[in-house]
Structures are given as structure tokens and as C-alpha cells.
Amino acid sequence: MGGLVLARACGVPFISHSCLLLKVPEVGRFRLGVLVGFQPLRLSTNHCKLPARLALPLCSSAQSASPAAHQTAPTSTAFAPKISFCPACGSPTEHRIPKGEEKPRAICTSCGLVHYQNPKMVVGCLVTHKDKVLLCKRSIEPSYGLWTLPAGYMELGESAVEGAVRETWEEANAEVDVEAPFAQLDIPRIGQSYILFRAKLKTPSFSPGVESLECALFNIDEIPFDQIAFSSISVALRLYVEDYKRGKLKVHHGVIDKRYVL
User: Fold this and answer.
1) Has residue 178 been placed in a domain?
2) Per its record, what are the GO molecular function terms (predicted)?
3) Which residues does 29 contact at the CB level (< 8 Å), separation at least 6?
């Protein structure tokens, strides 16, 4: 079942991203809305074959420097599975607002321990070799059989760069030299933040890891955007393609807004 993802990327002209409404397989339906600090713009059917009623927020370089531009939808709207039992003693929990706080937490009814849920950090590499991009076809769910950049959850005890290099090795058996940060893409609705780095292959040697069916280098104009596993990866790849064609690579920050239609 397909859906629509609304993405905004700082420092990128609106006209370049008038089609950043991406169909993705892993999510059902979304409500499109304007986030605080971003000017609502009406889509033109001259640029996209989409209904004119859909609006896309604009994030310019000037806006991204303002405090308002960094505000997002309230975190209370984010989806998170409830903690029903205390991980410490196994007793049931109740969800209420602890004294001195503003948000409901899972509190153990026996030992009183307050359990906090925090966003997950996903790290990975946008690996290039001779103007081609390395992609991995997933051998696991979610998005089995679709292409992605080598990326995964950051582990305790490692830096973001270390985690990105590790994930690249695990998924593509590729050794890389990290060159620079490329993009941070926040997904508040599902509690994830992606940190992606630009990297080069140390040698042209790579092969599928345990989580990959195959790995391949793609020319810029041959990236299979209709077979990309995750909205965050599709946005990152589109940003890279635009940077590449302009001849100037940037560091990007964006928010992917996944709010379900109720």
C-alpha cells in the first residue's frame, strides 16, 4: 500500500524540490501539513502531476538560520509503542505524567521506576566510486528486495562515523574513507534521525553482506528511485543527484513529515 511523504530540505530552492512527494511502500497514508517556520507553497501541476491542493513547505538558507525554522511538530504526536511491563522488575506500568514533567511516561506500579523512550539514531554512508553510487538490495524486512544506502542503528560506544563505516562493512563488505557529513534527516513521527556521510571506496571491492541480496554501483541517472526502500534514503539520494548536477556538494538538513490520516 503506497503513501505520500512530505519532505523539506534546508538550503535547497523550492523549485528544485517541487516533486519531493515520494511514494513509499513501507507506510500507509499521510496527512500533509505545514510545519512551524516554513512558508506554505501551493504545488503547480506544471511541475508535478499531483493535485494542486497539496502544499509543500519551503526551507531556505535564511529560514534555516532562524529559531522558528528549527521547530517541528510537537513530540506528543510521535508514535511510540507503550512499555507495558517494567524492564527492571517485570511489574505492570501505568502511563502518566511524573511530577515536574510535562509528558506521560511509563511508570512501574511496583518499584516506581520511570522509563523514558528516546529517538533512534540511524547512521550510514553515501558511498561513491568514479561518479557512481553504491546501493544495497535488502535481504530482510522491512522493504525486502528494495535498494538502500548502507545504514543502520548506531551502537553504544561508537561515534556516528564509526557506526556508518561499520554498517557499510556489514551490508556491503566495503571499506570506505569518510569525506564529510552529507545529510541529517529527522523523522519525528517515528522517532528516528538519519545521519549520512559522504564516503569513497578505498578499493573497488564490495559484495553483499548478510542483510543484502546484492550490491551494485549506479550511475547518477540510473538510480532506481522507484525501488528505493525508505523515504529518508530516497530524499538523500535526490539531494545528492541535484548537488552532483550543480557541481557543488552541500551539507543538508531536512525533516520528513509522516503524519497519518485519521
Assistant:
1) yes
2) hydrolase activity
3) 3, 4, 260, 261
Give the bridge partners for 180, in sequence order.
198
pTM for the whole thing? Answer: 0.71
Amino acid identity, position 136: C
All cell numbers assigned to 2: 503506497
- Looking at the fold, whether 88 and 100 belong to one and the same domain comes out as yes
Tally of structural domains, the chain: 3
How many residues can be counted in the chain?
Answer: 262
Sequence letter at residue 133: V
- Looking at the domain assignment, is residue 16 inside a domain? yes
Contact 230, 161 (CB under 8 A): no
Mean pLDDT split into 10-residue runs, the chain, 262 residues = 42 35 33 36 36 34 32 46 90 93 93 93 97 97 97 97 98 98 94 97 96 98 97 96 96 82 32
Is 26 in the same domain as 93? no
